[in-house]
Predict the structure.
Amino acid sequence: MKIAIIGGGPMGLAIGYYAVKKGYSVDIYEKDNVLGGMSASFDFEGDIIEKYYHFFCKTDTALFELLKDLGIYHLLKWKNTSMGFYYKHKLQPFGDPISLLKFDGLDIISKLRYGFLAFYSTKLKNWSTLDRKYAIDWLKSIIGEKAYNVLWDKLLSLKFHQYQTKVSAAWIWNRIKRVGLSRDSIFKESLGYVEGGVKTIIDSLEKSLHKKGANVYLNKGVDKILIQDNAFKGIEVKGKIFSYDKAISTIPINILQHIITDENIASKYKDFTYLDVICVVIKLRKPFSRHFWININDDEIKIPGLINYSALREDIKSNIIYIPFYISKDSELLTKDESFIKDLCKTYLKKINKDLKDEDFLAFSINIYKNAQGVYEPLYLYKLPPINIAKDFYALDTTYYYPEDRGFSESVRIAKYVVDRYL
């Protein structure tokens, strides 16, 4: 059986990997010139790193099994990391009980309620009731108005903008739970990475696919998915039609409305909202902070937070910062040139770390990814079209991980599910 996989990100590659293991013939089509999607890497002034930051948690069991299967599990490393919170014009430790109690900005009752949220989220198993609630209402009901305004309002408003009131409580809960369970103790957070970065995993998957006879085509996006009489007929790539027994699409589903030839099926993918991201990667002359991630609540800083990647990756000797700007399709930031964005990032970082000078900024890389973040409303899974939308055609993207967020391990988990269930 010959299968076409549309999209060469982690899910597409993992589907291909598990499909060839079962003896299927696989062709993977990727529109970019490099594999990985949001997990793609690049050479940043001598450092091979991801365009968009990655980390792993101790609950990422599907990823661990894949690493063992690929023979690279020994490259998985763990690091005790910490969180900081920039509030009231100072960077404060956050993310553990002692730091919470010392945090300047909340009364003791608000702190205790927030601590309960973190504890409760790690213990909750059945999330069905949260799936009917909005994140803002749920958070306020547990931690109160004051703590919400200090700790969560900026995070949600600067990530989801006009959609912040629509976000599901189940999605927020799962974000808290995943990181909350990745700890050595209540005082020590522990996050993982693979030596050489995610590129190590992508390269291993590609090597294994080639070894088993799969074809991986770069710079070849699928222009049309041919569906007739509710059955898959083939794909069109650069004016040529190719026939396959089955096809699996892993690209953002809102794109399918433009490339599926059956209008009725295409229309099922119209009403889904995604945000884009502008992710700025910065190389500094000196360390920025001891904290891995830094949440921000400051009226003059229009980002929800930043990632100090060097606080995680011990195999990188440079000082690397990621600043993600999540934006709607009509964002004014899309009209700005690179010099404006670089100056904006400099201003933000120098405000948080007052020891930084202009000469400490060594290099910038500005990466834009369309449809990076789904907007997860309550009961989201019930709104998604079925994976098997037509005979011999299957479509899903990272929003099908709900209530999990997009992540490498979830890509692997659902890839294995698709192969086992549908092939």
